[in-house]
Amino acid sequence: xxxxxxxxxxxxxxxxxxxxxxxxxxxxxxxxxxxxxxxxxxxxxxxxxxxxxxxxxxxxxxxxxxxxxxxxxxxxxxxxxxxxxxxxxxxxxxxxxxxxxxxxxxxxxxxxxxxxxxxxxxxxxxxxxxxxxxxxxx
Length: 138
Fold this sequence. Notes:
Layout: H1 2-79, H2 84-109, H3 116-123
Helix pairs in contact: 1-2
């Protein structure tokens, strides 16, 4: 009986061995993809942090340059005999014009809703109906 039991175990082991190898390979592959995804997300997070930090730094420099230009204009106007209220009014108007220009430019960024094409593809239940041709009657 020992010989028959060992033969049966060997047959079952040989039958299951390919499935076990496939399972082990799939498990290793899933682990490798998960590791790759984690490393990719980490790299993307670091890049995003640098992008945000750079954007803040650039914004501070641009605001400083804008304020310096407005102050230079105000000093020049005061040097040419314009009153303080007139100089401040002109500087404020210049800031409002700049803000309006930026607002108009930013409005065009949001004309298309993010992921609109993806949502349209997901929500499509059936292909669009074909338009009737000129010769067809309905």
